[in-house]
Design a protein that fits this description.
single chain, alpha+beta, 1 helix
Length: 63
């Protein structure tokens, strides 16, 4: 990861953005990222059983 940002999007909502050199670099670290989420998941509050507290999403920067 070459850059990272955390944005507060609501009273209890945060969004983490990581900037990586390549898709391969992300894939190589995926198991470590999952392990980290497993460590901090207990600090998070589940707001709805339909929504996960650590749902991953990804995409390319377009602007």
């Amino acid at each position: 990861m070459i850059q990272r940002y955390i944005a507060k999007t609501g009273n209890y909502d945060y969004f983490f953005v990581g900037i990586w050199e390549s898709a391969e670099a992300i894939a190589a670290q995926r198991s470590k990222m999952i392990a980290h989420l497993d460590e901090v998941r207990g600090f998070m509050e589940e707001l709805s059983p339909e929504l996960g507290v650590t749902d991953p999403i990804f995409g390319n920067i377009i602007a």
